[in-house]
Amino acid sequence: MQLTTTFLASLTTLSSITSVANAHGYFTNPKGRQPGTAYQNACGQQAYYNMMGSINGNIQGLEQVVANQDDYNPDECWLWKCKGLKYADNVDNVQTYAPGQTIPLTFTIAAPHTGHANISIIDLSTPSGTILASNLKHWPTYASTSTPIQTSQEDFSITMPEDLPASKCEKGGECAIQMFWDAPGVSQTYESCIDFVVKGASGKRDGEAGRGHARDFGVREVGE
Ligand SMILES: *[C@@H]1O[C@H](CO)[C@@H](O)[C@H](O)[C@H]1NC(C)=O
Questions:
Q1: Torsions phi, psi for 94 (to 5 deg)
Q2: CA nearest ligand 1 atom 10, residue
Q3: I need a labelling partner for 136 at 20 to 30 A (CA). Which of 101, 107, 169, 211 fits?
């Protein structure tokens, strides 16, 4: 990417914003959604610079950044769904999972702040990202500042549900795994999304119950 003078100047002014965002984190394995031109077109240049400067920042901070920006399009941005980050910028980063699969995830807590967190599967076709499966993981207390960062809060597994609605999550851009971490004490909320598709046998899912067993839950290539 070409670093223009404008871009660098924006990063400099952003340092004051990011220093306020002292709690934050993001999916690092698999890597969560990243900003790109689709994000810039929907949420505006300032939001794009903000996410390029630090992907970890909070949604309330983004709301302040986009306020009064001419190129912020609220009907396409949807900051409360995956921080507004877009599938179109992440088409090459779609995971493939089977129903019932155990999925190891890494969410890096770049700086803790006491809150609560949970992981859902969301329907990306709705503006708010309707929850299809909730509490795949749930922490009543997350990233407490009164204890060292818990390894189990950064490295953990979820299980892909076997009962997602039929015809959902079959194509990229339909569903995401969303981490939601809210730190009420500082009025900051963080999200990170992983795009995925579900492939593999599930009688409940695709009506092929007659086959009666998993076809292949083994390692398979993405995009087969
Ligand atoms: C779980 O995450 C969803 C967003 O994905 C959020 O709306 C909900 O408030 C969260 N629940 C808790 C208990 O944190």
A1: -110, 125
A2: 118
A3: 211
Q: Which atom of ligand 1 is nearest to the CA of 135?
A: 1
- Strand bridging mode 175-183 / 155-159: unpaired
- Give Cα 19 to chain centroid, integer Å: 22
Burial of 30 (0-12, 13-18, 19+ CB in 10 A): middle
The pLDDT of 82-92, averaged and rounded, is 98
Residues in contact with 50: Cβ distance below 8 Å, sequence separation at least 6, in sequence order: 14, 17, 57, 61, 62, 65
**CB 161, CB 133: distance < 8 Å:** yes
CATH topology of domain 23-198: Coagulation Factor XIII; Chain A, domain 1 (2.70.50)
What residue ranges do the domains of the chain occupy?
23-198
Chain segment 160-214, per-residue pLDDT in tens: 999 999 889 999 999 999 999 999 999 999 999 999 999 986 544 444 433 334 4
If one counts every other C-beta atom within 10 angstroms of the C-beta of residue 197, the result is 17
CA 81–ligand 1 middle distance (angstroms) = 12
Residues 6+ apart with CB under 8 A from 171: 197
Share of the chain above pLDDT 90, in %: 76
Nearest alpha carbon, ligand 1 atom 3: 180
Is 120 close to ligand 1, i.e. is its CB under 6 Å away? yes
Contact 69, 103 (CB under 8 A): no
Cα angle: 85, vertex 160, 156; to 5 degrees? 75
Distance (angstroms) between ligand 1 centre and the Cα of 206 equals 29
